[in-house]
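batch_manifest entry 22 of 60
target: Ank2 protein
source organism: Symbiodinium necroappetens
requested by: lab member K.T.
priority: normal
notes from requester: please return tokens only, no post-processing; we will run our own comparison against the previous entry in this batch. if the run fails, retry once and flag.
--- input ---
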Amino acid sequence: MLNIWQASGNKLTSFPVEELANVFDVKHLKRRLSKVCGASRFRQRLLRDGTILQDSAIVIEPQDLHLVLLPFCRSSDSDKERVNAAIRRGDADYVESVLQGPHDPEALTTPLSSPMVVASYYRCLEIAKLLLEARAHADRAVQDETPLFVAASKGSLGIVQLLLAAGADKDRSCRGMTPLFAAVTGTSSIECGIDCQSVAGLLLEARAGCDTVSCFGGHLATPLYYAVASEQTALVPLLLRGRADPNHVCARGNTPLHVASEKGLAITVNQLLAARAGVEFVRATGHTALHLACSRGYDEIVQKLLESCADRDQASSHDGMTPLHLASAPGHASAVSLLLQARADKNKACISDDTPLDLARAAGHAEIVQLLEWSGSGKSSRKRIRAS
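--- output ---
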């Protein structure tokens, strides 16, 4: 047996000889003992016959070892500066030596940062492992930033995995944003965009809340809304699979479908509609997604929205214009044709008492004038009906 004795003279634990092959050396033995003695390996010293064993010493035979737990050293300001500088340059050996002091990793925190936050920012996975092994807090915020929030924003997949395994709060907001939102916004970064996308996927697998509203650019938004607004289209199916709400109303009454329709993101519109995005939502300007697609002549989106039963005659509460008005005025002939095929009311007047035909004539869009005049059975008379 390998017997471990405490300084008090009491036996702490024993290991059968057959288990020693899996222990290898003193460092591995200390890691196993940390679960028994409640202290990290950095505070442990193992003695054999009064001599301290180095971490690299091999333990392969039955013997008696004595365990001593050291108190933490006092961490000076210079200690804090040096260890944070070492983390920034990725010097894991120096960090190991400081923790062997032993120094409490939490006592190395400054008013501006903590070792875990610095390791997360500089994507130092090996150092992050050392700090967590030394029992650094996985969720301690400094300057309103947790290690997980920082790691997510920097696309550090390994550190995010490490922190989630250590119990970090996956939904804790920092600077008005959740870690998932930080990862989604980070996808637009040239430096770490692809990595941030992987982090977003990992957070969703961990069931991070995907409908938590965050503040970005002075507006409230969900991760899905931001992904659509910033045209990070690869994230949309990822978020929808994570059960993001496609109908969550965000800035100025917009839903993701409004934004996708306005930007001409046809594939994204299809994905949102497949996830049961509502076509009836009206944003602050009084427009539905169909209004927006028609005003910009995005024919594929117009057709898809009409197929999804969007109201072809809904008048804007702002100016009374219908989708047909908004397609006719700028000269989007294909959109006009699609609306007429869907039997949109070509005679409906807006608040200014103009019909779509009036707007098309005023703008000199001869093709649209012809479409409107000859739609239906024969040449129709203009019947003004004020929009309700």
